[in-house]
C-alpha cells in the first residue's frame, strides 16, 4: 500500500473550539510558550492566560508557534484576579497538571463535560504555585517510568490536552 502525506488544507480535520482555558503560571521559556500556542491551536483551546510578567513575542516564540500566536486568544496578566475565573466549583472544572500528594494519573481524568475546564500548568522549574494549587478541584500527573519524575511542560501539556479534549469530543 502506498501512502501519501496530506497537506494542511486536505487533512479532513474539522475545526472545533473546546471550552478549555489554559492558565500558565509563570511560564518563561520562549520555546515552551511557542509550543503552548501551537498546542492551543491544535486542540481547539478557547483561551490562554499567561500569569506573570509579560513576555515579548520574539522570533523564537513566532517560529516555534508556527504563527499560531497571531490568532489564538491570549492575555498576559499579573494576578489571578484579572482572569475571568469562575469561583463556583459547580460551574467549572479546574484541574492542575502537577505531581502532588493527592494527584491522580492523567489517564484517570474525569470531567463534567457540560462545564468549561480550566487547566493550570506551572513554571518550567518550580511548577504551580501553592496559591494556584489551592484553587483546583484535582491535580493530575503523567506517570513516569524513568529516573526523572517529570517532563518538559509543553510535552506534558500536549498529553493533558489530548486526554481532556477526548472527553469533550466523545460527548
What secondary-structure arrangement, pairings included, does this model have?
Layout (H helix, E strand, L loop, with lengths): L17 E8 L4 H13 L2 E7 L7 H7 L8 E4 L15 E5 L6 E2 L11 E5 L8 H4 L4 E4 L11 H17 L2
Parallel strand pairs: 1-2, 1-6, 2-3, 4-6, 4-7, 5-7
Helix pairs in contact: 1-2, 1-4
InterPro entries: Alpha/beta_knot_MTases (IPR029028), rRNA_MeTrfase_TrmH (IPR004441), SpoU_MeTrfase (IPR001537), tRNA_m1G_MTases_N (IPR029026)
Organism: Galbibacter marinus
Pfam families: SpoU_methylase
Could you please describe the fold and organization of this structure?
The protein is of the alpha/beta class. The chain has one domain (16-169): Alpha/beta knot (3-Layer(aba) Sandwich), CATH 3.40.1280.10. The chain is 24% helix and 20% strand. It is built from four helices and seven strands. It has helices at residues 30-42, 59-65, 130-133, 153-169, and strands at 18-25, 45-51, 74-77, 93-97, 104-105, 117-121, 138-141. Helix 1 (30-42) packs parallel to helix 2 and helix 1 (30-42) packs parallel to helix 4 (153-169). The longest helix is centred in the last third of the chain and has 17 residues, at 153-169. It is globular and about 50 Å long.
Quick recap of the structure?
This is tRNA/rRNA methyltransferase SpoU. Keywords: Methyltransferase, Transferase. This protein has 171 residues and is an alpha/beta fold.
Descriptive tags:
single chain, 171 residues, alpha/beta, Alpha/beta knot, globular
Amino acid at each position: 500500500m502506498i501512502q501519501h502525506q496530506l497537506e494542511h488544507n486536505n487533512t479532513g480535520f474539522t475545526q472545533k473550539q473546546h471550552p478549555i482555558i489554559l492558565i500558565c503560571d509563570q511560564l518563561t521559556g520562549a520555546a515552551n510558550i511557542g509550543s503552548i500556542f501551537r498546542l492551543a491551536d491544535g486542540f481547539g483551546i478557547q483561551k490562554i492566560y499567561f500569569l506573570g510578567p509579560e513576555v515579548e513575542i520574539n522570533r523564537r516564540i513566532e517560529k516555534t508557534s508556527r504563527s499560531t500566536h497571531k490568532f489564538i486568544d491570549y492575555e498576559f496578566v499579573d494576578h489571578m484576579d484579572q482572569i475571568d475565573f469562575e469561583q463556583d466549583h459547580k460551574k467549572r472544572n479546574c484541574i492542575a497538571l502537577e505531581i502532588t500528594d493527592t494527584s491522580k494519573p492523567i489517564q484517570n481524568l474525569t470531567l463534567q463535560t457540560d462545564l468549561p475546564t480550566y487547566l493550570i500548568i506551572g513554571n518550567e522549574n518550580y511548577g504551580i504555585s501553592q496559591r494556584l494549587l489551592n484553587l483546583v478541584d484535582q491535580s493530575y500527573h503523567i506517570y513516569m517510568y524513568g529516573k526523572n519524575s517529570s517532563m518538559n511542560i509543553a510535552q506534558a501539556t500536549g498529553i493533558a490536552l489530548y486526554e481532556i479534549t477526548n472527553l469533550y469530543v466523545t460527548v
